[in-house]
Amino acid sequence: MHKVEVDVQGKIFSLETGRLAKQADGAVVGRCGDTVVLATVVSDRIEKKGLDFSPLTIDYQEKAYSAGKIPGGFFKREGRPSEKEILTSRLIDRPIRPLLPKGFCCETQGIVNVLSYGDENIADILGIISMSAAFTISDIPFNGPVGAVRIGRVAGSFVINPDIRETEECDLALVVAGTEDAVVMVEGEGQEITETDLLEAISLAHQEIKHVCALQRDLHAIAAKEKRIFIPPVVDKELKKAVAEIAIEKIKSAITIPDKMRRQKTLDEMLEETIEKLNTGETDISREISALFNDIERELVRGMILNDNIRADGRHSEEIRKISCEVGILPRTHGSALFVRGETQCLAVVTLGTAEDEQRIDSLEGESSKTFMLHYNFPPFSVGEVKPLRGPGRREIGHGMLAERALKAVIPAKTEFPYTVRVVSDILESNGSSSMATVCGGSLALMDAGVPIRTHVAGIAMGLIKEGDRVVILTDILGLEDHLGDMDFKMTGTEKGITAFQLDTKIGGISHEVMERAFEQARQGRLYILDKMKETIAAPRENLAPYAPRIYTMQIKQDKIRDVIGTGGKVIRGIVEQTGVKIDIDDSGLINIASPDGESAKKAMDIISGITAEVELGKIYPGKVKRVVDFGAFVEVLPGTEGLLHISQISDKRIAKVTDELNEGDEVLVKVIEIDKLGRIRLSRKEAMRDKSTERTLS
Which CATH superfamily, name and number, covers 323-536? Predict the structure, then answer.
């Protein structure tokens, strides 16, 4: 067994290999505090022909036993991956993928198993580091290592790898991954932070990443396998020349067609024509021709941007496509918007619910709930394809979470707006930046629904074309530019600052200077889009939609909660049955009453007020005789609250027996004449009668 360790800002990270999973191509156990993960990687020896990408799959699994739990459900075992596991799988995949050598087409699978889950909030970071280490010491070609850290800002100070408690207090939280030389991936969220603060956080994180990369190199030095022979595919220059002679001028013409579907149809026809002319021998070389055709297209698109600052749809590098916004387009929904940017179209719909609609989450950290959620759908027709409809894929879950983080920063607190809020984004047409269209459409729909968000949030996707020292940063990228470019950088925010961000590169990392330029260009684009959105709706509607539930709130004392609920929930069920409302009570005594109309809500509130009211000295109450005893009667003046009406206080005249005046079930007016230190209440019927008589005389 081989083991190395390093101190990263007071936390000890260790990597070991040679004890577990020895038949994998690479296996590393990562530890930090009580958190332990096992990362394994295996790559097939047979290359898959005809691929223009590396067939890599990364899976992250949280074992219930790692936190001392038994899984729920009938079968009591781990099942399909949770949303968190899917998002973490993507988080690990994204910095690893660009470091596989171009042309490496062997099926490769990396698996991260969480074996022990502590309070360090580090399992995902350990997963990235351990997976990179597993690739580094394996025989699989890999241009790493890559390191990662989480960085947060608590009370104005940056914290490296904050724990769970510290993360909850952060106004900036991000994961940064990179090599010793450059940043490869950034993902996170913030409370309207500045570009300067974000750049500072990334720079600080990168300094710590260098130590993590050095740790992996130490492990490589003592435990690495010899790398397998990998020969990058060699370009057939003669065949490429032949493809170019037939197609290059036509490709030049086609890539300037602004309409996406017409452009792609033209290119597909050209490719088919080229294959027919060149694929005439006994050996089928259609795949090679297709790959070379795509290479030429890539070179021409990138060259046009670098040399002429002209993009496929005719825009220059900083230009944003035409934007249109509409709200209130669906009559029965609680809020709706249609956001269109170029050939990307997002229909966003908001639904308001009650506490019963909150999303319950059972994770290794324990049970929690969400009152705001966003779901992103990308149907095949949005790009003119035919595919079976399944549940949401990894991409849809990832895009939805990015948009959710973007909007979460402006969603009001539950005490201010006691609704569960769900935003659904249906992408009806797509040509790049659909997740950022979701942010814009979601913000518009929230205002249309009357959700009191502080301000609009907009999102923009940025790209990069880099050849040597020549760099062009693209604003509002097309799908073509995303596919052929070197960076996909998404930034969302308000006029004040950034709320969410995601950066991925395809070239092994980008420099601080390039990031700084991209951030400023993104800020300018974001402000332009926000102005367009405000032209359509500048503030939340004052009233909710007529079909949205109405929620009324009231506060009671904590010691009165049990009175409202009653034994086994008897009292609260009775109120619900009597009024038809929905009632939610939290531990602080805050009550939310959801009702289709104000009348039934008022009725429920009056009942609860009666139950929770406290007896006041000197006040007259209509009471009901609950018990008769020799020395008087016990009278209920408020629900669950009784006082003693002594025989001497029943009447001005002397009575021999209580039952001469009162019996069980009688209704009687009584006045509170004493509340002693123990809370016992003394009542008087004769004083109540006197006071009422005086009132009649005066009137």
Answer: GHMP Kinase, N-terminal domain (3.30.230.70)
